[in-house]
Amino acid sequence: MWTKPLAVIVAHPDDEVLGFGGAIARAAVAGASVRVLILATGAASRGGNADVAIKVLRDQANRAAEALGVPPPTVGDFPDNRMDTVPLLDVVQRVEDFLGEAPVASVLTHHAGDLNIDHRITAQAVLTACRPLPGAPVRRILAGEVSSSSEWAGEADRFVPTRYVDIAAVLERKLAALACYEGELRDFPHPRSLEAVRALAQWRGAEAGLYAAEAYRVVREIDD
Asked: Could you report the per-residue pLDDT of 111-124, keeping only the tens digit for each?
């Protein structure tokens, strides 16, 4: 799948690296078309000068994309941590517009059980936009985990992997991309620290007999 057109659709700047940076880098190395959509601003809920914070995050997102070897992401303006206040149809249509801009075979997005409400809304919007109608191009949807959200969900919603992606060869590239988000990182042992992200990649790798991996859940897979 890593040589076919790939779309990564997430809620906030840094989600694309935390959950999917290894897969993005691996697809880029394989020469695949990779496009990233970030739906929410990622900063407006934190107070202070939101316009400045949003600009900083978008600049960091562009640098992270460069580190991963893919074009700059498309960034939306849905409200940070308040996407449940927006009609779901608006989010679905934004995802549909993005997917309609170029061919897409696989979509990576959030786990529907994440603690973060924006992650949940994004997952629902992606699933709706990717309805398997006759002739629909999307053949695969995978949900990934985002540190400091997926593992903090309630017991019934915890992320349980069903697929592992070997990212040993691109782990350092993922960490370099994550380091572009200086203001989003925390000190270890916070799960959104470079040390914890490395440890998670190694743990997921160990679960699958690999040096380092990203874990996913298969939401839908259509084998032609």
From this structure: 999 999 999 999 99
Give the number of residues written for the chain.
Answer: 224
Entry pTM:
0.96
- If phi > 0 it is left, if psi is from -120 to 50 it is alpha, else beta; for residue 135 that is left
Which range marks the domain in which residue 99 is found?
A: 6-221
Contact 119, 110 (CB under 8 A): yes
What is the distance between the terminal CA atoms of the chain, rounded to a whole angstrom? 13
Helix axes 50-68, 15-29, angle to 10 degrees: 30
Q: Domain tally for the chain?
A: 1
Distances (CA, A) of 193 to 138, 186, 189, 197, 223: 33, 5, 7, 6, 37
